[in-house]
Amino acid sequence: MKPTILMAPRLPQRLVERLSESYRLLGPMARSAPDALPDGAEEAQALITMGTQKTDAALIDALPKLRLICCYGTGFEGVDRARAKARGIALSNAADANAASVAEFAMGLLLASARQIGAGERFVRGGHWQGNAVQRMAFVPGLAGRKLGIYGLGAIGQRIATRAAAFEMQIGYHNRNPRSDVPYLYHDSLLELARWSDALIVAVRASVENRHAVNAEVMRALGPQGYLVNISRGIAIDEAALCEALENKVIAGAALDVYEHEPNVPDRLKALENVVLTPHIAANAETAQHAQQDLMIANLKAFFAGKPLLSPVVL
Prior knowledge:
single chain; about 325 residues; alpha/beta; Rossmann fold; seven-stranded parallel β-sheet; 12 strands; elongated
C-alpha cells in the first residue's frame, strides 16, 4: 500500500503527478486547520506545507501518524517547531534550491527601483516623452561604485552579493555573526549597515526576532538617496514606517516582493510612485521550481527508505 501524504496548499500539477506515482496523495486543504482535514488524513505520515501557512500544534496533533513535515520553499516560519520536535516529527525545506532565482529577482527589483524602470515605462505609456532634447526624466546615480548592504548573508544573500559585484558595487552585510569565508565588509548592526549603504536588500530568514527589524530608524539611516528591497518575508519591514518614509522622501524608493499580510498590500503603498510592487514571485523561475520539486521528492524518498533527509531543518 502506498504511504499517505497530505498536501495543505495546492501544489504545481507537475509535482502532484510525480507524488501520485508513489504516494496516496490527499488535499489540498481549504485552510490549514483540523476542521479542514480531508477524509483519510489520520493516515498521513507526511505533510506538505509552506512557510507562510500555519502548521500549528492543533493541526500537528490532529495527524496521529505524522512523521515528516515538508515545506515547499525555503521558509518554515509557520511550523510549530517545538511541537514537531516534541512529537519526534522531522522537518525539511527546499534549502538553497531557489536561491539563484530569488537573487536575480532581487537585482531586478533594485534595478527597477534605483534606475526608475517602472517610472520610465509609465512616462512613455502616459505620452510624456517628447524626445530627449526637450523632455526627459531626471538623472539617477546608477549602481556602479555604489554601496549595497545585504541584511542576511545566507544562500540567497551570497548569490545577491556575487551578482551585485558584477555590477561593480561595493558589498557590505550584517548577520548574527561575521563570516570568514567571504570578502565582503561586515557591519556589527543593521543600523550601522543602513548608514553605510546606498541600497539595502533584505534577505534575512523570517523569524520572531527579525519582525520589523527594518524600522523607521533604519530607514532614516539609509537616507534620502537610499533604496530598500525586500525579497525575504514581509514581517522583516515595518510597513507603516515604510509608507511614511516613502511618502516623506525619507528614502528615495523601495521595491517589494513580499508583504506582512499577504496577499493584502496596503493601499498607501499602492498609491505611491516611488515603490515597485510584485506579487511574491522571486522564486517563480521554472528552474527554481523544478529544483524545489526534485528536492522534495528526494527528501520523501529518503525518509520512507529510512535514510537521512537531504535538506533537514534543525528543530
